[in-house]
Amino acid sequence: MRHRLLLLVIGALLPLVLFAAGVTAVALRTQQERMRDEAVGRADALSARIDHDLATQIELLKVLARSPRLDEDAPDHATDLAPFYEVATRFKAELPHWDRIFLANPAGDQLVNTGLPFGTPLGHVVDEAGHLRVVAVGKPIVGNMAGPGPASINGRGMVSVRAPVIRNGQVVYTLAATIKAERFAGLLREGLREPLRTFVVDNAGVIVATTRNPNRIGQSPGPMALKARAEGNAGVYRGLTPDNAGTITAFRKSPETGWSVHVAIPLGVYQAPFDRSVWILGVACLAALGLTALLVALLRREIRAERRDIQAKAHAARMEALGRMTGGVAHDVNNLLMAVQGNADLIGRRLRDRHHVEDAKLDRHLASIKLAVEKGTRITRDLLVFSRGGSAAHVETIDLAERIGGNLGLIRQSLNGGSLNGGIALDLDLAPGFRVAIDPVQLDLALINLAVNARDAMPEGGTLRIALERATLEGGAEGRGVTLSVTDSGAGVPPEILPHVFEPFFTTKGVGSGTGLGLSQVYGLAKAAGGGVSIASTLAPAAGQGTTVSIHLPLAEETDGTAAAGWEDAPAGRVVPGTRLLLVEDNEEVGRVTTALLADAGFAVHCVVDAETALGLLSDRSSANVIQDGPIQVVISDIRLPGALDGVTLARRIREEWPDMPVLLVSGYSDSIAEARALGFPVIGKPFDTAGLVKAVTRAMATPAADRTPIA
Fold first, then answer.
1. Domains with residue ranges and CATH for the chain
2. What is the number of other CB atoms lying within 10 angstroms of the CB of residue 510?
């Protein structure tokens, strides 16, 4: 079963895990694509913004280049450029992000520097390549980054833009403006969403601005960024941020300026959906595993419960079949015992009547026959108790604690015969007030049987505990039952034997040490009382535990006393010679011997074999119902009869049609004995002797008709 449950778990979890993994992979890819798309869009937008801003700076510089102070007819001496110096200074003052403005001649000599007082000796231009390019092409350009160091201005990162001053189609000057790099960092930060990181690289491959680690300005962005710039104008690459953090970076390179904007997603953020998905998947798998384990546990418990239920039903069916079988055997054996008992009585009476003397030898033989019949009767009695055919003979409502307490002497006597070492202690927990409807004699016998079994299980001594506890029976009202438990501290019963211990004739004792009917009698007692019995045992008992037999009984309805007196309490009369009796018995030998016994007792007997013939005789008053010139006065019938009508049905028909007719029922076994007694019909069990039969018949005849009919 474990392998099947394991396959069930795998079969249940594998599709779930695969489905969850697929969903997770799709969700992860979707989230990562969304982040990449956002980074690409951000890079495009920022690149356009930087390009637009640089174009704006060039336009401003071109405006300044059109200043009339730089017209061609103006003196070409430095002292004549003082008016332009004033104009440039005021122009720069309106643009706080500009650092200074330079004016140089085509040869590269600086003529104006707004960062220094006019007239200060000036040197050659710093970015000579950019200057010569502007002179050559006659168009504005965006210069490269001048980071902190010898090439910087005042130790700060600057970006230059250059524009030609053209007069009459000739480049007469070049104008340059240096722009603070912080300007571009501010543009990058506008609308920036954490945790994205951005930086700008100029055409020379130098970082112009960044939103993190401004000390990296003027340095290389790293080999992966340079490689991406060299291979294309846009894309996504795996690289490092200026502060050496792993990233997934989208970039856009401007074809006009050669500058590129890079938008980096930290690798931890990019992989967070994966990590989160793995965590969620793991939790989901654990939850699924836990739920599946719970399901498997519940399923296993259900399977075990179902198996126990099947085993219990099979055991109950087996016990029921054994009950029917043993009842049938008891019936047949009782008929045989009846024949033996009756013929022995007849033989003894005939011989005594013939010789008119007592024969001691004959009496011994007859006594031996009677003793054998009594032993056989005891065996069949135990079988009948097990089969529930004859277990309700004398039901009374009793207090269990009082009844058990009154039999402690017998129980102790049963215990003291088998221990080798110090005897067996008796531990009692008998709560009063538990009243049950049960055969008290059979209860006494059950307790003695259990005590004897416990004694045999504790040959070196031990403890026997008898306890009463309120219980709820299966299918009964809550708390409306009682459990009588008998626990010994013996060696226990092997588990393979436990299912068979209540079967009749099953025993683990040696030959001659037991009949195997003790626990079957306990089983029959509990079933007859409307309850049940169970057994629990262990081969390695803890202190005070070995084997526990529990008898579960329903509590009786509260009454003022015991069950009402029955027909057995009615006085027995004398037989009037010639009393006419109809005997209904299907067993030929039993019918013959019973007829002879009744005839010897003074009855006029007519015997039939089925209920239909008996009803026919009772109905035909003209001839067949007359025995020795008179009507039938009493009917004796076996309960088990051939045909459609049994003895109980016959008795009910007689009561309906002839209410004054006494009816006595006899049986070696029948499921209908309890029904017969409940209807008020007296029942005598087989085998019986002449005296017992005559007494039962005379009591039935002496009981008034009103007392024979139960009150509804």
1. 66-180 (3.30.450.20), 302-387 (1.10.287), 396-554 (3.30.565.10), 569-708 (3.40.50.2300)
2. 7
Q: Are 200 and 210 in contact (CB under 8 A)?
A: yes
pLDDT in tens, 238-273: 887 656 778 889 999 998 889 999 998 888 788 776
**C-alpha angle 94/98/101, rounded to 5°?**
95
User: How many CA atoms within 13 Å lie on the side-chain side of 608?
Assistant: 21
**CA-based nearest residue to 249, from 260, 236, 230:** 236
Closest CA to 474 of 438, 526, 401, 536: 526
Look at residue 154 and give its three-state secondary structure. coil
Question: Are residues 330 and 389 in contact, defined by beta-carbon separation less than 8 angstroms?
Answer: yes
Give exposure, 35-61, as e/b (b: 16+ Cβ within 10 Å): bbeebbebbbebbebbbebbeebbebb
Cβ contact 1:304 at 8 Å: no
Alpha-helical regions (H) of 511-646: 518-528, 588-600, 611-619
Q: In whole angstroms, how large is the CA radius of gyration of the chain?
A: 59
User: 487 pairs with which residues across the strands?
Assistant: 465, 548
Cβ-Cβ contacts under 8 Å for 176 (sequence gap 6 or more): 61, 101, 102, 104, 125, 127, 130, 131, 143, 160, 161, 162, 163
Give me the count of residues in the chain: 712
In degrees rounded to 5, what are phi and psi of residue 644?
-75, -25
Give the DSSP H/E element, type plus range, for residue 532: strand 532-537
**Structure confidence at residue 424 (pLDDT):** 84
**Residues with Cβ within 8 Å of residue 577, at least 6 apart in sequence:** 602
314 vs 303, residue with greater confidence: 303
Question: Within 10 Å of residue 375's Cβ, how many Cβ atoms?
Answer: 11
Spatial separation of the C-alpha atoms in residues 113 and 121, rounded to whole Å:
10
